[in-house]
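FW: tagging you since you asked about this chain on Friday. Here's the raw sequence from the shared folder, copied in full. Didn't touch anything.
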Amino acid sequence: MSFEAIKGISDAEVQGKAKVAEAEARARQMLVDAEGAGKAALDAAKSRADSELKLLREKAEKQTAEKTAALDGEMLAEADRLRRAAELKLEDAAALVVERIVGS
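HL: got it, structure written out here
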């Protein structure tokens, strides 16, 4: 084999190794870029989810406060109705006691 042929083979091997090294470097950079993009997308999704959760929590708290206020109003009205009914029965009971005492 001639010296030129051996040199050509050697040069081809060097070039091949250089291309492989370059391809590996590009692949590593692509991986780093993809990981960065994935992390950015994940952070953005987490941020959107946190914002949505905050809005849902605020809405639920508002609805709970409204329902609690409505129930408080209903309970106060019911307590007032029961108090009035008890007052009426108290008057009837007092009248019955007086009637039995005076009637005896």
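FW: The two ends are 146 Å apart (CA to CA).
HL: agreed, and The longest helix spans residues 3-103.
FW: great, closing this out.
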